[in-house]
Amino acid sequence: MIKQIGALLYKDFTIEWRNRYALNGILLYLAGAVFICYLSFNVKKGIIHPITWNALFWIIILFSAINAISKSFSGEREGRNLYYFMLCRTEAIIFSKIIYNSVLLLMLAVIGFVFYGVVMGNPIQDQVTFFLCLVLSSIAFASSLSFVAAIASKASNNGTLMAILSFPIILPLLLLIIKISKQAIDGIDVYESYDELTILMAINVLVLALSYILFPYIWRN
Amino acid sequence: MACIALLVYTIIAGFLMEVPTLPILNESIRNLYFHVPMWFGMIYLLLISFINSIRYLQKPKPEFDTKAVEYANSGIIFGILGLVTGMLWAKYTWGAYWSGDPKQNASAIGLLIYFAYMVLRGSFNDDQQKARISAVYNIFAFCILIPLLFVLPRLTDSLHPGNGGNPGFNSYDLDNRMRLVFYPANIAWIMLGVWITQLRYRMRFVEQKLKENQSK
After folding, report:
1. Which of A157, A202, A218 sits opposite B133 (nearest CB)?
2. Would you call A217 an interface residue with chain B, using a CB distance cutoff of 8 Å?
3. Global pTM?
4. Cα separation of A145 and B68, whole Å?
5. Fewer C-beta neighbours within 10 Å, C or N terminus of chain A?
6. What is the average per-residue pLDDT within A166-176?
7. What's the pLDDT tens digit per position in A123-160?
8. What is the spatial distance between Cα A46 and Cα A42, in angstroms, rounded to a whole number?
9. Are B117 and B138 contacting, i.e. CB atoms less than 8 angstroms apart?
10. Is the CB of A151 inside 8 Å of chain B's CB atoms?
């Protein structure tokens, strides 16, 4: 199975590299969103309140993530899905997608963070925790969004459905993440947010387990 | 019948029996008989919906799917009623309909999840695929709902009775006289929910039969 995941990952990265326009599109989307925020808040450096800074950052990341992931299943052609189905275990497919999307989101989040920090100022006091938060949130978003993308790809009006299905499921994750990163911004000790970190990881494990169990039912036709 | 008797008992006893006077809550404590059972009812109905979805995935019979969606429908109604009764109560005890209490927010998100479930069901053309995919989403939604409603609000202070030092309904505060009404009230509301759902489910069943006969 690990071999299969490896092969699928290799395939995903190659496809992404060949269709660079999609990746560039998402990066441009991210940059555009950050710039819109910058212009509409009319920020002079450091004036924006940390709470607003934090919320705005995560909202931008959330929307880019939904956009990036929504095409992860619908991008493939019908026949090709059948081909994968014959070749590998279904669990390998969802796990390879989750890993691939985590890497993609982490990259997006880091680029977004750097650009956002340059444009809007960087009030964070505890950089390490914030980075940890970026990593965890990428994995969390990727795992639940990949699953939702698989569901949405089977339905007809894909674009709206992806957003509708994922918002309520992502919200609890988002609230936890915003809370942890707020504490990182204020420079509060990491130990203070252990509870939230544990729950975030627990939800991650829950979502992964659910995808493992339920994904074969979506995939089968 | 038992359900109606219990409901009548709940309403009469709920409004007329003596209740302990607690600070802030006063007479609004009677909402315990109406607001809280709504949530118990919602969880119970959604649980049945969840179980039916699992059974559908094990054995794809259309009746499991119909049951799952009807129980989810009644669960949503109970959820909305729970939210409304809670908001009315909150207006008099907390001073505003919506005060951003973690439990209020969590239950609103929970309702959004189930609305999404309904929208998802609407967007399929193929009946079998609709049943299967929405069963998967229903299971997923329920598993997310449980930590959302029972774990996350416990992390922060809530205005709800029983949290953050407010007088609550735990074993010390809940008066024995109130228990006498509270437990029957829960059973009564749950029974009402199940009864409504079964009616709706049977209606759907008859409609399907009629359709089949027409097409013959």
Report:
1. A218
2. yes
3. 0.81
4. 24
5. N
6. 85
7. 778 888 888 888 988 988 998 888 888 888 887 766 78
8. 11
9. yes
10. yes
